[in-house]
Specification:
It contains eleven helices and ten strands. It has helices at residues 7-19, 24-32, 49-74, 90-96, 121-131, 147-167, 219-222, 231-235, 246-255, 272-276, 325-329; strands at 78-89, 102-109, 115-119, 175-182, 196-206, 209-218, 261-264, 294-298, 301-311, 314-322. InterPro entries: CheC-like_sf (IPR028976), Flag_FliM (IPR001689), FliN-like_C (IPR001543), SpoA-like_sf (IPR036429). It is a peripheral membrane protein.
């Protein structure tokens, strides 16, 4: 991203040029020199900007779903939102999280590999305290989880995968399954240390406790669905696959829909006094000539021309021509 100068920096630069502290010719010379950008092959950026934006959009929805879920489960104030989305080597991510934390490892079937949801201990123990009837106060506890704590947290975070599945449903039909809960990141090796991962950091507030929930998505796991994260995929229309017999069933339903069809014999204008004086046997002259075709409308739309007649001793019309749309517009 290009550096953008603030107004104060611009003023200071102009002042330095005017006082002679900086030489404009030297600045021009620096611009003409070939600039070399250092590239770190250990921090390969394997996700495009479009894909990062799509991942951000997906996990913003996930954050909203998590807020609703945890609010119902914990019965307290919960606020979760996306704080940042970064791509970095897996080894760097592991080093950045606490030495003792809550690591939920799950398999995103049918995708191959494992994903990770790291929950800061402050947030995790506040949830646990709330579930056990407390006020949701975090406990600075740096040790292994007991069997009861592991069981409760497993059930709590297992249900968050339903929200994860729903958030990703627009991209891939996923059936995530919780595999294990770890507390020491040093014992967790999901991918190679240099593998690029995307880390979505969710800022989380539970009652008066705040912390982070990090979602770690390795590139090797998402590689199969990466094309679906591009803008072109989101914009294109996906053709729906119809079930066998679905088209015929729809046609049968449409054919049974009732329509109002009217044939207009002609029009005439008379006064109210003439209308009040009408009686049996009176004749009203219409503006329609006898040799001109009648207009037939379907639900008020002009559709056909017809000629009047009789069929089985009943008044009827016979369609003689179809009104084209262009003719109708005129």
């Amino acid at each position: 991203m290009a550096d953008i100068l603030s107004q104060g920096e611009i003023d200071a630069l102009l002042s330095a040029l005017s006082t002679g502290e900086m030489d404009a010719d030297e600045l021009k010379k620096e611009e003409t020199e070939k600039k070399v950008k250092v590239y770190d092959f250990k921090r390969a950026l394997r996700f495009s900007k479009d894909q990062v934006r799509s991942l951000t959009r997906i996990h913003e929805n996930f954050a909203r779903l998590l807020t609703t879920y945890f609010s119902a489960q914990l019965r307290t104030f919960v606020q979760i939102s996306v704080a940042s989305v970064d791509q970095l080597p897996y080894e760097e991510f592991i080093r950045s999280i606490p030495k003792m934390t809550i690591l939920n490892v799950f398999e995103p079937y049918p995708l191959e590999g494992r994903l990770l949801m790291e929950v800061n201990p402050n947030v995790a123990y506040a949830m646990l305290d709330r579930l056990l009837g407390g006020k949701g106060i975090s406990i600075n506890k740096i040790e292994n989880l007991t069997e009861i704590e592991t069981r409760i947290m497993s059930q709590l975070f297992q249900r968050t995968l339903d929200s994860f599945e729903e958030a990703w449903s627009s991209v891939v039909e996923m059936d995530p399954v919780m595999e294990e809960i770890e507390v020491n990141p040093q014992f967790l090796q999901m991918v190679s240390p240099n593998e690029t991962v995307v880390v979505i950091s969710l800022s989380t507030t539970i009652a008066e406790t705040s912390g982070m929930i990090n979602i770690c998505l390795p590139h090797v796991v998402l590689e199969e669905v990466l094309p679906k994260l591009s803008v072109h995929y989101w914009m294109q229309e996906k053709k729906k696959q119809h079930q066998p017999g679905e088209k015929e069933a729809i046609e049968a339903k449409i054919k049974k829909a009732p329509l109002l069809i009217q044939s207009e014999l002609g029009r005439s204008e008379i006064t109210i006094n003439e209308f009040l004086q009408l009686g049996e046997g009176d004749v009203i002259e219409l503006d329609q000539l006898i040799n001109e075709p009648l207009l037939v409308t379907v639900e008020g739309e002009k559709k056909f021309y017809a000629q009047p007649g009789k069929m089985k001793n009943k008044m009827a019309v016979q369609v003689t021509d179809v009104i084209e749309e262009a003719e109708d517009d005129e």
